[in-house]
TrEMBL record:
Protein name: Cadherin 20
Chain segments annotated as transmembrane: 604-625
Superkingdom as given in the UniProt entry: Eukaryota
Cleavable signal peptide: 1-19
Organism of derivation: Hucho hucho
Length: 722
């Protein structure tokens, strides 16, 4: 499309130029006829040419054509071009007069060129006509996007601004020709920042579009504004910028003290002007909107103390206005107001922009340890006392003449559970945790009284707190019973006596009431009889019990106590059907062939059997040793030890040498007395040897018996413990 428009524009420019030449020629002829001056007749005059910028073709851009009426086409005339860009930007064919642009033209760099043209005679090298000036104007195309030259922008507006409040006015600059088409017609829009802000499309004014923006909630906003030329139409070029908007503070938040009551203390010897303490009413606003003014508006210390604002205008400084005297007055109460100094009348409905607090100032004196009014305290407190209940106020005084102010506390080691709290000034004891008599029925705490002026002076007193019972626990069976009924049991037979326990401790003692649970009221198998002595009997209502029919029954028992409010519970008694002997002792409650007695557990039986087994082993060992002792000592040729046990000191020779010993006696020393002839000196050693053997056997036997007995006793002890 651009390639077609360019030739048409050039043709139009050529026609306009030729028409202008003809008009100039007619005026020249009229001037000649009028006789104003005489000169050579000029056949052409140029005013201006038009050419589009940013031509990107490969060939030089044709601008226009110079032609003189004196040019006969024989090549005798030479055209010369001078002025802006002649030879560098524009060239002319000196024979034909055609003008071309040899460089890319940019209207934003140079919008027009002033050129001069003249026709010369080639042979005489003299001008044929005077010089003529003409202008080459560069026509604009949309080749530049709008730009925000000063971006990014910073803007500040007050918080809580109303809708429509102007934030900032933006202007985007478009380098294109504003007089030609819509290339420089800019339209503004917002890309980021809704719904808080908006921008006017034509003026670029950014405005608030959401009311109630609170700096204390969000202080900074970043929005993006777009400027688009061509009137914002499709195909237009666009540029963007960022606007950082900060909400400035306004006084829309009232001040407030952190505490309703401040505790301060000061020595009575403090000088006038001394600082007692400082307080602050905090304000969510900042700067001058948070500045405060403090004043004492009430209290018995208005004439004794003063308050002023510090250099930051944020804190109130309490100072002494008059000398203090502990004996005349030990404490003061100040009612102090803190108010903003800079009010915004637009937000008075968010007020009041002031707040009041109480300051309690205690005057301290030097004294000795305080003394309590009682040597010890005994207090009774119901376990249902609510948290925060004041149950006793203890008091202590300074025995000195100065009568210093006392501060109370509880010694931490005596109230590890932190059940109690004491007011530091009044000595009022109160509960801070729920009390439970069943958990802890007595609390023995120590209350400390400390002098404010000298913390090393501390008095103490014992406080015994008895927790009174409230009926808040239901009675329960002493344990989860498991009873049994014999298969041979008759109707009305007692099978179990049940008892209950209750952790409560009523003044009149425990009174329990038993009955079957409502769902078991018509139980056909068992009934319950309340003995009116805190026990109840479980009785059978029929006979003919059989394990094969049903081996286990469950009987729910309802128990209630006699105190108000009445507490109840339901427990289940498991009743098993068992085989019993004629005396009613249980033999078996299941399919096992043998059932242990109820008084003997399986572990105990195993221990007893193990003991019996060990005893049998030890008895067999002793019998084996005893039979071994009765055998002859020498019963094998390999064991012949006569050379070791028979010795004598007589010299050899004589008859007695042949009768020195009997072979039979050597094989069996116990029968040595049967030998008719023998050496008398041999008998003591043989008898001594056999005696030592017997002693060793007896000692071994005694050791075995002792070990067996001790082991059996140990096993029996274990079995008994099981």
């Amino acid at each position: 499309m651009g390639d077609l428009l360019l030739p048409l524009a050039l043709a139009l420019l050529t026609l306009l130029s030729e028409a202008q030449v003809r008009m100039d020629k007619a005026r020249s002829e009229e001037e000649s006829e009028a006789g104003l001056f005489r000169r050579v007749k000029r056949g052409w005059v140029w005013n201006q040419f038009f050419v589009l910028e940013e031509y990107t073709g490969l060939e030089p851009l044709y601008i226009g054509k110079l032609h003189s009426d004196m040019d006969l086409g024989d090549g005798s005339i030479k055209y010369i071009l001078s002025g802006d860009g002649a030879g560098t930007t524009f060239t002319i064919d000196d024979s034909t007069g055609d003008i071309h642009a040899i460089k890319r033209l940019d209207r934003e760099v140079k919008a027009q060129y002033l050129l001069r043209a003249q026709a010369w005679n080639r042979q005489t090298d003299r001008p044929l006509e005077p010089e003529s000036e003409f202008i080459v104007k560069i026509q604009d195309i949309n080749d530049n996007e709008p730009k925000f030259l000063d971006g990014p922008y910073q803007a500040t507006i007050p918080e809580m601004s109303t809708i429509g409040t102007e934030v900032i006015r933006l202007t985007a600059t478009d380098a294109d020709d504003p007089t030609y088409g819509n290339s420089a017609r800019v339209v503004y829009s917002i890309l980021q920042g809704q719904p808080y802000f908006s921008v006017e499309p034509k003026t670029g004014v950014v405005r608030v579009s959401l009311a109630g923006m609170d700096r204390e909630v969000r202080e900074n906003y970043s929005i993006i504004i777009q400027a688009k030329d061509m009137g914002g139409q499709l195909g237009g070029l666009a540029g963007t910028t960022v606007v950082n908007i900060t909400l400035s503070d306004v006084n829309d938040n009232p001040p407030m003290f952190d505490q309703k009551l401040y505790q301060m203390s000061v020595l009575e010897s403090a000088l006038v002007g001394s600082v007692v303490g400082r307080i602050r009413a905090k304000d969510r606003d900042i700067g001058i909107n948070a500045e405060m003014r403090y004043s004492i508006i009430d209290g018995d210390g208005r004439d004794t103390f003063d308050i002023s604002t510090d250099h930051t205008n944020l804190f109130g400084i309490i100072t002494i206005k008059k000398p203090l005297n502990f004996e005349s007055k030990a404490s003061y109460t100040l009612k102090i107001e803190g108010a903003n100094t800079h009010l915004d009348h637009r937000f008075l409905d968010k007020g009041p922009f002031s707040h009041v607090t109480i300051v309690h100032v205690s005057v301290e004196d030097i004294d000795e340890p305080p003394e309590f009014s009682s040597a010890a305290y005994y207090i009774e407190v119901s376990e249902e006392a609510e948290i925060g209940t004041v149950f006793k106020t203890v008091s202590a005084r300074d025995p000195d003449a100065s009568n210093n102010s006392i501060r109370y506390s509880i010694e931490m080691t005596t109230d590890l559970g932190k059940y109690f709290y004491i007011d530091i000034t009044s000595g009022a004891l109160m509960t801070v945790l729920a009390l439970d008599r069943e958990e802890l029925s007595w609390h023995n705490i120590t209350v400390l009284a400390m002098e404010m002026n000298n913390p090393s002076m501390i008095g103490n007193v014992s406080v015994a707190v008895k927790i009174l019972d409230v009926n808040d626990n239901p009675p329960l069976l002493t344990q989860y019973f498991e009873a049994f009924v014999c298969e041979s049991a008759k109707a009305g037979q007692l099978i179990q006596t049940v008892t209950a326990i209750d952790p409560d401790d009523p003044l009149g003692g425990q009174h329990f009431y038993y009955s079957l649970a409502p769902e078991a009221a018509n139980n056909p198998n068992f009934t319950l009889r309340d003995n009116q002595d805190n026990t109840a009997w479980i009785l059978t209502r029929r006979g003919g019990w059989s394990q094969q029919d049903q081996s286990v029954y469950y009987l729910p028992i309802f128990i209630s106590d006699g105190e108000l409010p009445v507490q109840t519970s339901t427990s289940t008694l498991t009743i098993r059907v068992c085989s019993c002997d004629v005396e009613g002792n249980v033999m078996s409650c299941n399919a096992e062939a043998y059932h242990l007695p109820a008084s003997l557990s399986r572990g105990a039986l195993i221990a007893i059997l193990a003991c019996i087994f060990v005893m049998l082993v030890m008895i067999l060992l002793m019998l084996s040793l005893r039979s071994h002792r009765k055998k002859p000592y020498l019963h094998d040729e390999e064991d012949n030890v006569h050379e070791n046990i028979v010795r004598y000191d007589d010299e050899g020779g004589g008859e007695e040498d042949t009768e020195a010993f009997d072979i039979a006696a050597m094989w069996n020393p116990h029968e040595a007395h049967l030998v008719g002839k023998q050496r008398q000196d041999m008998l003591p050693e043989i008898e001594s040897l056999s005696q030592r053997e017997r002693n060793r056997e007896n000692e071994f036997e005694r050791c075995a018996r002792r070990i067996t007995a001790e082991f059996a006793i140990a096993l029996l002890s274990i079995a008994y413990s099981l």
